[in-house]
Amino acid sequence: MRALLVLSSLLIAASAASGQTLEDAERLVARGDTVGAIAAYEAMIARQERNAEAHYRLGLLYLARVDRDNAVSADRRKAEEHLRYATRFAPDSARYWLALADYFRSQNLITLLVQVPRAVGRAREAAERSGNPVEIAGAAYRAARLAVDHWQQYGRRYTSASPGTPTVVPLAEAEWKYWDEYVTQSVRPAASGMGMRYLAAAEEALQHGLAAQPLDCRLLGLLVVVFGETDRWQEAAALARKVTRLAPDSGRAWALSGLALARINRWHDAQVAFRTALERMTPAERAPYLDIGRIMRKADSIRWEQMPAAARGPYDSVYWEAAKPLAFTETNELQVEFYARLTYVDHRWTDPWRGYRGYATDMGAVYVHYGPPDVWIVQTPDARAVLPGADPTGGQDTLVVERVLDASQTVIWLYRLPQFRFVFEQTSGFAHPYFVSNSGEAFRVDQTLSPARFDNVPVIRALDTIAVQASQFRGPGDSAAIVVFGAVPLRRMTESLPLATLPLVSGALLQDQQGVELLRDRRAETVRVDAATPTVQHRSWRLAMGPGAYVLRVEAYLPAHVRAARSVQPLAVRSFHGSELMLSDLLVAGSVAPRDSTAARWSDYLIEPNGGWFTPGHTVGLLWEAYNLAPDSTGKVSYAVDLRFTIASITRRSTIAQIIGGLGDAMGLSAKGDDRIALRYTRTADATPDGVNVEHLTVELKDAPEGSYTVEVEVTDLRTGRSVASQKVILIDRAPPTRCDPCPAQRP
Questions:
Q1: Which segments of 187-297 does DSSP mark as H helices, in order?
Q2: Is CATH 1.25.40.10 the right assignment for the domain spanning 15-131?
Q3: Cα dist. 494→264, 327, 333, 637, 672 in Å?
Q4: Is 575 helix (H, G, I), strand (E, B) or coil?
Q5: Distance in angstroms (rounded) separating the CA atoms of residues 116 and 430
Q6: Residue range 688-715: average pLDDT?
Q7: CA-to-CA dists, residue 287 to 12, 39, 290, 332, angstroms
Q8: Is 321 helix (H, G, I), strand (E, B) or coil?
Q9: Measured between alpha carbons, how far is 234 from 238 in angstroms, rounded to an integer?
Q10: Residue 190 gets which letter from DSSP?
Q11: Cα(456)–Cα(206) distance, rounded to whole angstroms?
Q12: Is 2.60.40.3880 the CATH number for 578-748?
């Protein structure tokens, strides 16, 4: 008897020492002692064979150790064994069935993958029997997640236009036209019934889960994604708005509201929603939104990663200010779109059971960089993309689509404007897609060429170009007076709009190299849109700034519509301080005339602004100022002026030039071949107290060929022999300057 008592005491001590309670085993897990925790659970099961919770936790430990590339490992076998025991001994536990579903979902064999829906279904049944809202919501989310993965397989399905015929698609960048032909001629959408059934099943599960847990952002986020798949963004916005009213402190709910609002083009409201979201998020939730390194070029991304945390906030602000499409509006659509993309991919491709976030997947990363693709094709289960060769029989430069039976699908994403293409492969709706063949390398190359694009943002898609010329003159002190002319493409901006009187906001502003605004000249007016609306309307703005390197932005936008035009260019402001001979910029205008006979500075002239575009036969007004010409003993200055028009790369025709106005003693007109005309004249004038001598000319090019011209004026001080010159490039054409393609605003 005494021996039995001693043995019992030893067993109790051994049990306590080995942690044979759930709490002790979990403490081992918390310390990272997985081996000890496994031993503890196994000892517990040896004593209590039907302990479902111990089987469940032990199965999860083995599942966490599974090597995805090893299909027959002991860890796989033991994970399945213990999770099956858990569901056998406690079939009413939703948690156990979901864990078994996770095991099946981690496999690569189709015979195991097809068991996932059954296990998830049993989990939902168990959750309903328990009546536990948390379990109901969790099982519903898992079912919806599975249905969305199946939708990814069966939605957007395309089949060959000629069944049984392989389609060869060159992969080289130079062969983009073949990709375009492929999606327009070689494939066709398949029946979407099966895909829509999966989407409906996902919605049903999510709505059911939200009925149990109305504030569960996992359910809300995936439902927003489901609504978006069929362009039901208005419903998504209403749903998110409802949740933010119920849970105003939920940052994730506010982010979903921002996503939905952006997709219905309520960009300002979306910006407010995202700002509210970031204020209410935890640091971990906020971190991805503040990581702009993910859309930078590699070198910039490395510098961003090495930057101290305290410096990232100001840099983030500068980055987005520089990327802002329109400086004269309060809304930064590009920043909003970045946040919207992150929110979408986080709910679309995140897999919490496999431990990865949506933006870390191949598809999610491409989506964050370039947005939703213009073409999204899923090859049907009996068509698979392989990359065997350079021709239909073998090589390395073609994509051959063959009819084969396979458990995987091929997904093709095409972006038309930048001509990017990416090919993914996915395993029958149970796993996230991954790059096929050279698509991963193509993505890295594309990131170098264009780290991020925002072509899907309406203001960017419609963004037009303003032709701008800026001219600098001596200002007070060491400052420069800057005259900015812009050719606003009003006809294109108002194309397809109803005839009406519309508000138009335009302006010019200077920023420093960090994107900080220094000063602006902004105008608000109304314009009449009708059949007589001119193709281009010219506007002028005036700025004053000291010497330095700046960025000049000129913008025009219609506040009532998503229509805008802009120009962004560097501007080096010169110093006119000093006594040496200097020349202002050459100002080219529609016409130039002095207000009266006392005109002594450029500001004393009536100037018709022109952004540098002239129609054939139009007169060209020229104006410039010379500074610090050396006077002789009588107080006179003498100088020579050389004016040259040089034609660049256009059709040759006879060119006759007339120089008129303000010269009196004009002489020396000569032709240099058929691509250049020149005028030289001398002038004697009184020296002025401020050392400024202003000149103007009006030039008419009769029968001038359409094209680009360099206009140059050179002034030589005849007393000192010193010369200074200035030049401008103008366009003579019947058509206005074309829109840039791609526009710089598409890449922050």
A1: 193-212, 217-229, 233-246, 251-263, 267-280, 283-286
A2: yes
A3: 21, 21, 21, 51, 43
A4: coil
A5: 9
A6: 89
A7: 48, 38, 5, 20
A8: helix
A9: 6
A10: P
A11: 28
A12: yes
